[in-house]
TrEMBL record:
Domain spans labelled Tyr recombinase: 192-408
Protein name: Site-specific recombinase XerD
A single MF term (Gene Ontology): DNA binding
Family named by the database record: Belongs to the 'phage' integrase family.
Keywords: DNA recombination, DNA-binding
Biological processes, Gene Ontology terms: DNA integration; DNA recombination
Organism the protein comes from: Nocardioides albertanoniae
Keyword DNA-binding attributed: yes
PROSITE patterns: TYR_RECOMBINASE (PS51898)
InterPro entries cross-referenced by the UniProt entry: DNA_brk_join_enz (IPR011010), Integrase-like_cat_sf (IPR013762), Integrase_catalytic (IPR002104), Integrase_recombinase_N (IPR010998), Tyrosine_recombinase_XerCD (IPR050090)
CDD domains from the UniProt entry: INT_ICEBs1_C_like
Amino acid sequence: MVWIEKHKRSDEVVSAYVVWRLGGGRDGERQFETFSAGTTEQNLARAEGFKKMVVSAGSYWPDGWVKGEGFVRPRGSDPTVEAPAFPVIGEEYVRQIVDITPGQRRKYLSQVRTLARTEIRGVSPFQRSVAMIGEQDIRAWLIDWDRALKTKANYHGLMYGIFSYAVERGFLTANPCARTAPKRRRVKESQAELRFLSEDEFVTVTAKAEGYSYSAADLVRVTAGTGLRFGEITALWVSDIDLRNRTIRVNKAWKRVGENGETEIPSWLKKQLRDKHKMRQHYLGNPKTPKSRRTVSISEGIAEILEKLVDGKAANDFVFVSPTGLPVHNSDFYTQVWQPLTDELVEDGIAPFRFHDLRHTHVSWLIVGGAPLPHIQARLGHESITTTIDTYGHLLPAGDELISDIVDAVLSGKQIRPPLHLLRGGVDAAVA
């Protein structure tokens, strides 16, 4: 029998100890391995992974594992000796990654299992020993796997990490993924164009949404008016809304739990959570990136909508809730509201769009209205201005007429006014 013991330290972090008796018998010498270098969630995840390896090894130490250090195998050792199957080394790699959320770890493990089930050209290459998978197998998979190029690029990134780990462990001398990554340009070209709602389409959408639950029309208006992600806007509490200063504070978002219900809730938030903040297969955690934690200004019209939604609620109540008063679950909202709403809109001649396209629509409004890209970047919570430009740069007006006016102004001896005047006054304000 193998079990995990947990001990909370003075810093509130839980250290995990995998404990068993050598060989599994009662008379076997007691063994243990300690996992305490990371956060509570990381320590427990690593301990769970190590526990499975001990069980697989018959209650003995996994081959190549050194107590307190992990797997130690010299580089350059024979890559065909005792090389594990791809699913085994894949799971081992995912379980030792430090800087990912429980939900991301769960997703990666699912991707490893998907690859193991994938058949390419009559064989299942990712069920074989990791040492028996070559560059030709990776290329065949990239060519024949019936998935979008963006999906294959995401899987390829995980595979690259797995094979790099296998190289470090000494099972391989080279990474078979090293020269096969899909070009970023091709991945971008393969993706569908962003969908933006016109002003008339938006009016139709909100009018149709009035007939649905979940305060659907208001949810659509506030999302399109702020650019928040679904996981952010449905995580808003009343206390996050400042009607006086007309701002919204984004400091949390819904995250998926790990495979065994693991969460990664920041300590400041954990103290405030109550039963009403629970949702199946999800938990409240940090937003997507550090810069996603932000304050967003809101218009007077959005403030009026929010004022109605928060009226009579407690500070830690959700702004948007289901018809039963529970947090808004993405799959419930999709099946009960979004899918029937979009089906109805298609009948009215409006092309299908995703809820996330409301965020894109918000940006299109800002760009057409002349909002500077750095301001849009901060508003969206993008880590880099490059992300904003790569995603929305094509919406910027070509400005051929404006450019011509600026050049002619200089040639004729006129002065060019600062950009601020341009934003306020339009093309005619570019020149004196």
